[in-house]
Amino acid sequence: MRMRQGNVYVVDTSVLIDYPDIFYTLGNNQIVVPTAVIRELDGIKRNPDPNERKAKSARKVSRTLDQLGRRQDIAKGARIVTGGIVRIYNRHVSIDDLASAADNRIVGAALKLIDESKANMVTLLSGDANMRNIARSYGIKAEGYPFRRDT
Question: CA 48, 52, 55, 56: dihedral to nearest 10 degrees?
Fold first, then answer.
């Protein structure tokens, strides 16, 4: 699948847990899920309380990605009904600025995407202020979600 120009959103685990339907709200853009996020989702979904909100969200995101991957090559990009493309991404640049190895890999994935697709606007979406700050120190646009509109 040929990737087109547009925004590339790298989503952190915190955003997927709080907004498990985010894939369908970001419009006609690329949504990239680093494999480090998949690993974190795997740990969260195993909560022994099946009704716990975070575990339910993690299971929902995992099912959505699995359904997309059954029908399309999600490593190259699975097109969704909004016209957007969802990818699972397993490459990253090594950094060591955050306490969490997963967080370092997520920021590193955004860096690698910038290297690979210079024409695209890469934005890291995270609920973690420190992750956003580190991402910005590398020149990555970083925002919380939902987007804040300045008034």
Answer: 120
Tens of pLDDT, residue by residue over 84-133, are 999 999 999 999 999 999 999 999 999 999 998 765 689 999 999 999 99
Q: Hey, which residues does 7 pair with through a beta bridge?
A: 121
Domain ranges for the chain, please list them. Answer: 9-143
β-strands 85-89, 30-34 pairing? parallel
pTM of the model: 0.91
**What would the two tokens of residue 48 be?**
């022994």
Q: Which helix (H) or strand (E) holds 136?
A: helix 129-137
CA 32 to CA 10: how far, in whole Å?
5
Class of domain 9-143: alpha beta
